[in-house]
Each structure stands twice: as structure tokens, then as C-alpha cells.
Design brief:
Helix content: 10-25%
Largest sheet: 7 strands, mixed, barrel
CATH architecture: 3-Layer(aba) Sandwich
Radius of gyration: 13 Å
Order of helices and strands: EHEEEEEHEEE
Oligomer: single chain
Number of strands: 9
């Protein structure tokens, strides 16, 4: 996998949620329709702390459109930690990390399940 496509609205949601939760870490699940990540699912009873974020596996829906996860780091570092790499290998093919200050594309990185960096292409919706 060389790159992942994401709708601009989903990307902006990730950035806004990360800013709103800061200094805690935000976490959600990525939903893909076709070849494009279309939305971020925020699950009930998610826990967002200053150095961690977690979701309850009991609340993960049975949904084959969920392809991975997204979480934020409260620093500019958007590289995966050792813990992140272990989690990447357990679930999903695509994982994103947003780093502070959560303002744009330069603050988000995408990785495959092995922790290899993957490009991000933004899909902009045009009005008629």
C-alpha cells in the first residue's frame, strides 16, 4: 500500500477532535467505503488520557468497513510508539496519528499494520 485516500471532512474531524481533547489523546476508528476513508467512529466509553487513549472492545461494532484506527499525540510527534506498533499489528490495516497542534496535513501521518509510513491523499468534495 503506497497511499490512503481520506475525505476532507473526515480529516478535518480528526484534527478538530484532537484539538478539542488536547492535552489528552483522542482515539477513533476509521471507516472506509470503496477505497476512501469516509468517516471516523467515536465509540461509547472511550477513555482519553494525557499519555494514552483506549476504546472498549465490547463497543466495537461488527462492521467490515472499519479498516483501522486514528489517535492523537499531545506533542508534534506523529510517529508510532512501541505500544502503537503492537496495537497496529493487532487490528486493522490502516492507522493514523495526529500530532499537536492538529492544524493540517503536516500534523497527520498514516501507517500500515506493520508501522510502515503510507502517503495520504485528501479527497475534496465539490459542490454542484
Amino acid at each position: 500500500m503506497d497511499s490512503v485516500s481520506i475525505k476532507e471532512v473526515a480529516l478535518q474531524f480528526i484534527l478538530a477532535a484532537s484539538r478539542n481533547i488536547y492535552p489528552n489523546e483522542f482515539m477513533g476508528l476509521l471507516r472506509m467505503e470503496g477505497d476512501v476513508i469516509t468517516e471516523v467512529l467515536v465509540l461509547p466509553q472511550s477513555i482519553w488520557g494525557e499519555s494514552f487513549a483506549s476504546i472498549s472492545s465490547a463497543h466495537i461494532p461488527i462492521d467490515n468497513t472499519i479498516v483501522g484506527s486514528v489517535h492523537s499525540h499531545p506533542s508534534p510527534n506523529n510517529r508510532p510508539s512501541e505500544t502503537d506498533l503492537v496495537e497496529f499489528g493487532r487490528s486493522g490495516a490502516i492507522h493514523m496519528i495526529a500530532g499537536y497542534p492538529y492544524r493540517g496535513m503536516g500534523d497527520i501521518a498514516c501507517y500500515d499494520h506493520s508501522g510502515n509510513k503510507v502517503g495520504i491523499e485528501v479527497v475534496y468534495e465539490t459542490g454542484d
